[in-house]
Design brief:
- It is globular and about 40 Å long.
- The two termini are 16 Å apart.
- The chain has helices spanning 77-96, 119-124, 152-163, and strands spanning 2-6, 9-14, 21-29, 36-44, 47-56, 62-68, 103-106, 127-128, 148-151.
- Helix 1 (77-96) crosses helix 3 (152-163).
- The chain contains 3 helices and 9 strands.
- The chain is of the alpha+beta class.
- The chain has one domain (2-163): 3-Layer(aba) Sandwich (Aminopeptidase), CATH 3.40.630.
Length: 165
């Protein structure tokens, strides 16, 4: 494991068992008041083949996203991304000032397909967001309109138990 930390940027590289694979997690705070991203990334032969991201948008809403290139799916790479993300968050959560009670959201669960059940429900442990279809007035509710949610603490606990970290 190696660490590069400068101001609003942290990058930690993780060892892996797969030849020609580089894995790392990086945090970047675009400006001190709002937007930031924590990305767990896999590079193979110099090309990015997948990521798992936690993004804080300008409204203070935290969203999750994952993408693995088609040629690299069903090889366990999403589990590598999640493991590295959880290790990073356990180590740096206090420095990054993210509470365990922070609610994380996804826009749409498009992961249920011919390959199996919902990734977000079954692997990550997310639940329906109670404000997904809240049509009561114009009250401003963080997370309104996002399909699923989970707390940071539950995400880290679920992944840690499933992956034995």
């Amino acid at each position: 494991m190696s660490l590069n930390r400068e101001g609003n940027y942290i990058r930690e590289t993780y060892n892996n068992e797969i030849e020609r694979m580089e894995t790392f997690v990086e945090y970047e705070n675009k400006n001190s008041l709002s937007e930031s991203t924590i990305s767990s990334i896999i590079i193979i032969a110099g090309e990015s083949v997948g990521y798992f991201k936690l993004t804080k948008n300008i409204d203070g809403v935290y969203t999750l996203s994952i993408e693995i290139d088609d040629d690299y799916q069903n090889k366990g790479y999403s589990l590598i991304l999640l493991k590295n993300f959880c290790i990073f968050m356990k180590k740096y959560r206090n420095i990054l000032d993210i509470s365990y009670n922070t609610i994380l959201y996804i826009d749409t669960d498009a992961s249920e397909n011919e390959n199996g059940d919902s990734y977000w429900r079954n692997i990550i442990g997310m639940n329906e967001n109670r404000y997904y279809e809240n049509r009561r007035g114009s009250r401003k509710i963080n997370g309104k309109g996002y399909e699923m949610s989970i707390t940071l603490e539950k995400l880290i606990n679920v992944i840690s138990i499933k992956l034995g970290i």
